[in-house]
UniProtKB/TrEMBL annotation:
Protein name: GFA family protein
Alphabetical list of SUPFAM superfamilies matching this protein: Mss4-like
Organism: Duganella callida
InterPro entries in the record: CENP-V/GFA, Mss4-like_sf
CENP-V/GFA domain mapped to chain residues: 4-113
Record flagged with keyword Lyase: yes
């Protein structure tokens, strides 16, 4: 079984996941744009178990449809590394960039496409949703 480790910029916070991602997606919502400082967030979902090393600061955000997401980021360098959805403790979403792996699988889903910057090109086979499905 493949093991991957994602970490923050300074290396203080990391998460190790096992197996292939359940899915890889990008989110163009304004909250993700602000959270990442980029024009979208790239996320990969994994099943538990996973191992976290280091200290994390947490930020709870409620989505448009009421779901609550607990984002974990490094208190030293500020990098967002992973998040979970309240009530779904058997899953974790990890920031794709935190893997620092240019060979990481591409996204297959794009949500909040109504907020996508016009110059962002999606993979041709990506399933696109105007908002959160």
């Amino acid at each position: 079984m493949k093991t991957r480790t994602a970490s923050c910029s300074c290396g203080q916070l990391s998460i190790t996941v096992h197996g292939e991602p359940r899915g890889v997606g990008i989110c163009h919502c304004l909250a993700c744009q602000r959270r990442t400082g980029s024009v979208f967030a790239a996320l990969a979902g994994f099943n538990a178990p996973y191992t976290v090393n280091g200290r994390a600061t947490e930020y709870l955000r409620t989505g448009d449809q009421g779901a609550q997401f607990l984002f974990r980021f490094c208190p030293v360098c500020g990098s967002t590394v992973y998040h979970t959805e309240i009530g779904y403790d058997d899953k974790v979403s990890v920031a794709v960039g935190a893997f620092a792996d240019p060979q990481f699988p591409p996204p297959t889903v794009s949500i909040y496409d109504n907020r996508r910057h016009a110059w962002v090109q999606l993979p041709s086979d990506a399933k696109v949703f105007s908002k959160d499905p």
